[in-house]
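Input record (one chain):
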Amino acid sequence: MQLATKTSILFLSAMGLAACDGAIEPFAFDTTYTSFADISDAFVNDVETNVDEDGSLENPGNISSSGDLASMPSGSTIYNGALIAEQDAGGGTLIGQLQLDADFTTNRIDGRAGNFIDSSNGIILGALLGTSSFTDEVDGTTGNHFEMELTGTLDDDGTLMDTTLDLEGNFLSNGGSATDIAGDADITMTGGPVYDDGAFSAAR
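The corresponding structure, as predicted from the sequence alone:
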């Protein structure tokens, strides 16, 4: 009887967690994907709105000014989106979810990338983590608000790959203060596929 009661409590607790909206832990993604078609439908159009496939901004005039960033609420703001990179020599396309947590009080930005799916290799397990600082001002429309290196080990069907994701990004103001972050995403997998320069974009 006691075992049944404990089991019921655990079951109800799990149901309660599953019913919560949004992420249940820091850097957890609200939605995960199990097919390339689904993750592509979810993110490709949004990323391409802000950046070309090599990470060049579609509209550099949208780069946020120091005044835009100063108008952001103090504390952390979470941006969710994705990174996209094409395999070298016409291979598959890699898409991974990206979460950036920008603290406009301390000018710190934390990142996590995960839930990677390659159109030719399938699901790649693991997550990449990184942190950096960002500047309030950039040089006209040519500089970057931040550079960040995210690292970790990814698992491609049992093949473990030490992986580095280098981001160079800008806050963008599309009809509001720092509504998006976008830029260049270069990913390197030791012993894995080789990817060309990629792109990322995330929105709050």
